[in-house]
Design brief:
Radius of gyration of chain A: 25 Å
Structural class of chain A: alpha/beta
Oligomer: homodimer
Largest interface: A-B, 68 and 67 residues
Helix content of chain A: 25-40%
Number of helices of chain A: 18
Strand order of the largest sheet of chain A: 1-6-3-5-4-7
Number of strands of chain A: 19
Shape of chain A: globular
Chain lengths: 513, 513
């Protein structure tokens, strides 16, 4: 089958309908609703769930079609648009929209070859990524592409080409500094909120660290969610550049800038499949860092039975592959394999993690030492690869930068530049989960803890989540609290406690022998 | 993560909303629309595109959530349901519906293992197929499962277990006859409409052949679409049984009976991926045939460069595997490898193919001989495995059954039993596609011909499609018609001709040397 000619979308013979904004939220998936008895549906042979192409004055979007038999919602000549379709098409209410069948996707032939084990070259990845960003891949196509890369893992050359294609299709930030530092954590470890501590340490030593972070997708808090309880994070590009120019660093939400837009679509599908692949992970991380203009990257790989990377061997292989691909871009990368056997700090949830961050930065007496040490380790690696500390001395220098108050001072300046330091909210409701027996804590299931915090309302309810009262190895008496669940409504608290009652293995306490 | 307890859906503490029927067509995908500011969305932390579980008096459906900011469409406490969700939930307007997060799908763990190359056992396929039929798999999950089976082809044992699971999860037809014949064609060959000829031949010899067929999914006509222009095909189970009891055979639409319901979901996703795998194809065909109560099956495998099976080796492998799996069920199967190098008969499109069928059955002078010979070949194989003809004599017996009028008589009786013989419609508009040069027809692209017929309106417009004026090897003069495009509207005719003008390789004519 062949694609229509390039001018097909603006063909004056194509049927038109009038745009109607439905204010329908569908995430990134563009949706259009037509009347089942609409003349265009009929003459074009559209069926529900087919992909159709909408165009308006040079703007174009491919959308999933649903059909409705309701005269009140839509007139016969109206095309009801979801918010995502409305924005991409850039129409106004009642404006003419041309509709036609979505063109055949040539790049799917590469996806099919990849499914059967063929290796793809740069041109194939360029075509795929271009179509993905243009919204031409359905979720089925995306899932097929990602599954193929799980069944036959991407090799080093493929990861390089995919990463390059992902960078080229989005915006890129440029900086005057010759060294631009960034950090990334593989994730999967609740409470591991080092970024708001690492950035001020690194910036305090004169290095550029323009950090953009994501919101939570399946976890109870992303760095952007936590940081938002401390300062504004939705910075436009001009503000972001101003903050970095004046303070050396920022801690912003990455969604406001279009770095590696293909990654956003891939990540969502990977989460739904619950499949992580090394190749896609490396392409995701490196494409974001390259697009953000980074020259030096610290890559935190927590390893633990319930973390994302489960064995030392998996961590080693991931690090080797990331280093090899980064080298092809001239990007310096330092991979740190860290302890992923339990959550970091005490809080799990946006505001609860923010309180841990503040305690460390302000050197409060009860500040969680594991979070402080881990932040110092990562910041130290950044100072070393950035040339601000000799090998082996970075972590100590980073720790001193916390202890002497420079990190806290820089953090306050960054928050002020981003729009002003805020006080994180406190939840109204809280209840303890107590030990069922006396003994020693032998296992903490990070995945189930994350789920508990989410059921309590995190991250949508920023004050919600979990505060840990124990760590691995803690000795505990029957009836003593192991953790506290925090929620913004009693219903959410009940819902979370209900889950906890059904999940005795969130925290395992072993009887003394 | 763990699943909620079995009674979670009827937990009185679960929040409820009032059902509202939106009359929204979404094919098989259940969709629910809630207000973005609805208290349930808020307290449950639902996000657009998440999967949520709806329940009502023991009925349960998992639906994709969209959110809307429009007070006119939905009240705050309403849940707007697509037709698919509405039917499964079995609610009435305004009735209470409980909502919660969709439970974690344990069977996805098997899909993930399969992606990484592990073989699945019967229990794993049972769990997957059960969840698929219950509507718990999203399109992403289905695509991941199907891609895994393409990357690492299902082995014979897996195909057997998948087929078995697919049969067990649906309805099964039972017949008194000890021999129940069925036929299936791999497809991909336009105009290959042998079923309405094969069934009356086989039934005329006293064999049972309760044939259920599909409508077109991506082709310009399915057997059910063609047959519907000749007689009613949407028979309920009682009518279908009555027709077979009295006439020995039927030609009905399979959608009215729930044979192998998992297959309907798999096929849709395979088409969207445009990926066919032997394993899934065999499971699809055999599960439908076993569920339909067949004991003997003729399997037509057309082989050609633009057909679904492209090489003799692929055809041989498919036949061997199908025979091996069928044997495990005690099902007798006869695989016929046929010529797939060009369309069969003249018409492509529901009514146009029906005219070919009528011409053959009525022994009209201009009846397409290739269609007659092919139908005789398949019917002959059925007569042989059904014990009505000695090996090597079936095709001749079948041909005689056409020539002496018995097939036409039986066809008329079957149509009468199904509700009455109809006259297929004729299109109002038609235009020839002429040869660009004089010469010999050396190649016919079946895929592009199918696309041309679809752009002309087939199968939604039953009279639309293509009539071939040439075959491979025909000598043709410049300006003579190669085919005629038929359409029910001028707009559709223009649209199809526009495609033809851009696709010079639909039919290739070679200049004499």
């Amino acid at each position: 089958m062949s694609t229509p000619p390039p001018d097909a979308a603006s063909d004056p013979r194509r049927p038109t309908l009038r745009a109607k904004r439905l204010r329908l939220q569908t995430q990134s998936e563009p949706v259009v609703i037509l009347r089942s008895d609409c003349h265009v549906s009929r003459s074009e042979g559209f069926a529900a769930r087919s992909q159709i192409l909408l165009s308006n004055n040079g703007h174009e979007v491919q959308a999933t079609l649903y059909q409705i038999d309701d005269e009140e919602l839509l007139a016969l000549d109206e095309a009801g648009l979801s918010e995502s379709a409305w924005e991409i098409l850039n129409v106004s209410e009642g404006e003419a929209v041309q509709v036609s069948h979505a063109p055949t996707l040539e790049s799917l032939a590469s996806v099919r070859r990849r499914i059967y084990g063929a290796r793809l070259d740069g041109a194939a990845f360029d075509a795929i990524v271009h179509d993905v960003v243009a919204g031409r891949y359905t979720e089925v196509h995306l899932a097929a592409f990602l599954t193929a890369g799980a069944a036959f893992p991407l090799d080093e050359a493929e990861i390089y080409e995919l990463t390059r294609a992902m960078v080229e299709v989005g915006d890129r930030l440029e900086w005057d500094a010759s060294i631009v530092v960034d950090k990334h954590c593989v994730g999967g470890l609740p409470g591991n909120r080092t970024t708001p501590i690492v950035v001020p340490i690194v910036a305090a030593h004169g290095l550029s660290i323009p950090k953009t972070s994501s919101r939570a997708i399946t976890s109870p808090a992303g760095t952007a969610d936590t940081m938002e309880t401390l300062a504004p994070v939705e910075l436009d590009l001009a503000t972001l550049k101003h903050v970095v120019d004046t303070e050396g660093g920022c801690i912003a939400w990455g969604g406001a800038v279009h770095l590696s837009p293909a990654d956003d679509r891939f990540v969502k599908i990977e989460r739904e499949m619950d499949v992580d692949t090394e190749g896609q992970l490396i392409a995701s991380v490196l494409s974001k860092k390259l697009a953000a203009g980074a020259t030096h990257v610290v890559f935190d790989i927590p390893i633990g039975a319930t973390a994302k990377v489960r064995t030392q061997e998996d961590g080693d292989r991931l690090a080797r592959l990331a280093e090899a691909v980064a080298a092809r871009f001239g990007l310096r990368i330092c991979c740190l394999k860290t302890d992923g056997s339990q959550p970091v700090g005490r809080g799990i949830g946006p505001a609860l993690e923010a309180f841990d961050v503040l305690a460390v930065l302000k050197n409060e007496a009860d500040a969680p030492d594991d979070l402080r040490q881990r932040a110092a380790l990562i910041a130290g690696a950044a100072l070393e690869i950035g040339g601000k500390a000799r090998a082996g001395t970075g972590a100590q220098l980073a720790l001193e930068t916390i202890l002497d108050g420079r990190a806290w001072a820089k953090f306050q300046s960054i928050c002020a530049a981003q729009g002003g330091l805020r006080t994180p909210p406190r939840a109204c409701c809280s209840e303890a989960l107590t030990a069922p027996v006396s003994g020693r804590v032998v296992h903490i299931n990070s995945r189930k803890l994350a789920r508990l915090a989410k059921l309590a309302g995190a991250p949508a309810a920023p004050a919600a989540g979990v505060v840990m009262d124990i760590r691995l190895g803690s000795e505990i008496e029957r009836g003593q609290p192991m953790l506290h669940v925090h929620a913004e409504t009693q219903a959410e608290l009940d819902y979370a406690l209900d889950y906890a009652a059904r999940s005795p293995d969130i925290i395992e306490v072993e009887l003394p022998t």
